[in-house]
Amino acid sequence: MNKGILITFEGGEGCGKSTQLKLLYDYLKKKGRRVYLTREPGGTQIGDEIRQILLNKKHNRMTPVTETLLYMASRSQIVEEVIKPRLKKGYVVLCDRWLDATVAYQGYGAGADIAWINSLGRITTGGIEPKRTLFFDLPVEIGLRRAKSHKSADRMERKKLLFHRKVCAGYRAIAKKESGRIIRVPVTPSDTVSEVHARVLRAVSPLI
Ligand SMILES: Nc1ncnc2c1ncn2[C@@H]1O[C@H](COP(=O)(O)OP(=O)(O)O)[C@@H](O)[C@H]1O
Ligand SMILES: [Mg+2]
Fold first, then answer.
1. 15 C-alpha to center of ligand 1: Å?
2. What is the pTM of this model?
3. What SS3 state is found at 132?
């Protein structure tokens, strides 16, 4: 039914998702592909308002269940409003984070029930699955340093190093379990942006 393909980028703070998505977007545009770049949470008006709640530094007592529900609400909106219509039209849709991020952050990181997150996720994503997911595996400390260097740390980025280690371990576990969909892209601190871009192209070129 869907002619388009959904590709998602995952990984911890500062691992290079936004940088690499922009490069892949530009590459596909130049090739003449119909391509759409969006992010989670956000990507719709409702989603952007939910994003403001989620990233607000004042909300330092939000429970993992509340967080999960807010992410899922934003996701449901972007799936119906943005992603499904574009997949139907044959677009390559590039999304900065997806359900895997909720499993990694709210599940593995913050301790919300993973089976519950996944069952909620099946409804929220409306039957849409990423064709390919790239998980950028950069050492946690390096990513956090990079994420903080260019903007004031938001609520998520301020959480402790230990939390981010659990998130990273979570991503690795998900990548192992879903090795058919997820490609783990190991990134060392000295790998340049263009080196990582070359790896991204190798990973997605069989699809596009
Ligand atoms: N390979 C790289 N080497 C050095 N710096 C990088 C590399 N990739 C990204 N950066 C920088 O690290 C910071 C975080 O990258 P970003 O793409 O915003 O990560 P994310 O979206 O995963 O949080 C940015 O300032 C970016 O310019
Ligand atoms: Mg980003």
1. 6
2. 0.94
3. strand
Written as six digits, the tokens of 77 are: 């909106």
Which class is 5-205 in CATH? alpha beta
Write down the domain spans for the chain: 5-205
Residue 12 CA to ligand 2 centre (angstroms): 9
Atom of ligand 1 nearest to the CA of 96: 21
Residue 208 identity: I
Q: Taking Cα atoms as reference points, which of 81, 78, 94 lies closest to residue 5?
A: 94
Mutation pick for ligand 1 pocket among 39, 145, 146 (CB with most ligand atoms within 8 Å): 146
| CA separation for the pair 33, 36 (Å, rounded) | 10
What is the rounded CA–CA span in Å between residue 65 and residue 21? 29
Structure tokens at 39: 């992010």
Among protein residues, the one whose CA lies closest to atom 20 of ligand 1: 14
Provide the pLDDT for residue 155: 64
Residues 6+ apart with CB under 8 A from 95: 6, 7, 8, 9, 38, 39, 40, 43, 78, 83, 130
Cβ 17 under 6 angstroms from ligand 1: yes
* Confidence check: pLDDT of 88 > 70: yes
Residues forming beta bridges with residue 8, ordered by sequence position? 95, 133
Q: Is the CB of 134 under 6 A from ligand 1?
A: no
Predicted confidence (pLDDT) per residue in 95-129, tens digit: 999 999 999 999 999 999 999 999 999 999 999 99
